[in-house]
Write a structure and sequence with these properties.
By secondary structure, the chain is of the alpha/beta class. It contains 7 helices and 7 strands.
Amino acid sequence: MNTQVIVLNGGSSSGKSAIARSLQAVLPGAWLSLSIDTLVDAMPARLTTGGDGIGFADDGGVDVGHEFMALQDAWITGLVAMARAGAHVVVDDVFLGGAASQRRWLDALGDVPALWVGVRCDPAVAGQREAARGDRVAGMAAKQADVVHQGVAYDLEVDTTGTSSVDCARTIAAHLRSSRGDRAD
């Protein structure tokens, strides 16, 4: 398998972004790292306060509306187009819809080779990271820790509760090598 896309799915503050950066360091070649946060940050402010966009409740809940979903579909299509054009892409996403979110990616990817990685983290540890970050609504990490994995099929899962992002990236890289039949040392 000549993987073009690595999809990292996990709750907020689970360590996906750190793993993505570490993958860029340990994988051969150039890998672009793009996050769902990139999409949210690129959206007009009016779409980040709920309604048809994306909204963040005081208890850490996240609601998405029609306009956000349309923009996310365009974002996914764009990332897949980059992979089809030859770019290697690490995607850092949060599957709020569980299996339905994965289905959207599967439909867009078609025959583009992808590796599906579940990024897990104990909700209490993710909550501590969330508090230390200071840029998330308290409770988001705990609310997302399990729901984002419901019904999602993975090629590999890593757990950042007690494992560093670099070690998780090395595990993913070894999996990629072994799936191609290369030595995994």
